[in-house]
Amino acid sequence: MGQRVAPEGITACLFDLDGVLTSTAAQHMAAWKQTFDAFLREHERERFRPFTETDYVEYVDGRPRADGVRQFLASRGITLPEGGHDDPPTADTVYGVGNRKNDALLKIIQEHGVTPYPGSVRYLEAVRDAGLAVAVVTSSENGASVLDAAGLSRFVQARIDGLVINRQKLRGKPEPDSFLAGAKALGANPAQAAVFEDALAGVQAGRAGGFGWVVGVDRTHHADELRAHGADIVVSDLAEILEGVTP
């Protein structure tokens, strides 16, 4: 394994999906904004304040869908009944609002497709050629379909997504459970695994899990926050690692 791919001793790479491998983070942000703005217009009325990118980064990005609903609405002093995973999108429950967002996301993806970052594809190819194992660790329940649509499934040996997180009752990011499950699925201990994340909650999870290398991917100009939450290095594109960025 060359030093241009990862530090010595790293045998497994754990990649977040949206915003790290694919450009779908922007589509998630748009779906959350559409969902929350409609909800807030109804519930805040004359006090309506729109959902912002800052809200997305602080309360939603990288977290399981229901956690994002709870965290953001709590920031506005709103509490909803939990409901259940199968609640209809029309239900004013935590899971109902989350399912509303998912419907919005699927429509956006259907209209615009899924594009992998070219630099991420280059890095995945280099990781594969170096013989490192690859897992995708994402809070999204649409992980399989997004990987397929982006043509990235061929690189991935294990997938820990929102469906697995729910089924195994794993704590979501910023807790390290999903990354630990990804490392285990690849037969690696945390010290042998690298985490690649664009979300503050994600790099925090990587640091909390004691992973050997935590890479922050800065797509939205918050490099300082990524470092503060636990990133060993911060890059704007994964291809930079191949060009000599070192920990």
TrEMBL record:
Signal peptide: none
Record carries keyword Isomerase: yes
Enzyme Commission number(s): 5.4.2.6
Catalytic reactions of this protein: beta-D-glucose 1-phosphate = beta-D-glucose 6-phosphate
Cofactor(s) in the UniProt record: Mg(2+)
Pfam family, one: Hydrolase
Sorted UniProt keywords: Carbohydrate metabolism, Hydrolase, Isomerase, Magnesium, Metal-binding, Phosphoprotein
GO molecular function: beta-phosphoglucomutase activity; hydrolase activity; metal ion binding
Top-level taxon of the source organism: Bacteria
Family indicated by similarity: Belongs to the HAD-like hydrolase superfamily. CbbY/CbbZ/Gph/YieH family.
Protein name: Beta-phosphoglucomutase
